[in-house]
Amino acid sequence: MNALIVDDSRAIRRILSGMLTDIGFAVAEASHGKEALAHLQANAASTSRPDLVLVDWNMPEMNGLELVQAVRRDERFASIPLMMVTTETEMAQVLRALEAGAQEYVMKPFTKEVIEEKLRVLGLAR
Question: What global pTM score does this model have?
Fold first, then answer.
């Protein structure tokens, strides 16, 4: 299975990458929404197409909410689960992300157990 981690923090990308690699994912990374969208488009029909995208909210170029909205507008990516992994903790923000098309929402800081539980909810882990 393939995952795309989208976060402007290299440290967070490394942490999530390690967690997902341990679970069995092949991981690609992007530092902002535009880079992630380009990755999705370039791999839309390949075996590298992500089965999961983890998205930070606050990023330059294109923020996470804008990325979720852009991904959901493209029918090629309608089935890809999107998980917000962010410091945004206000319930209004959680609702905005879910309404835009994110299936799960994880607040930073997080643990491997939280990520694994969200993956189970999405049907992507045991």
Answer: 0.96
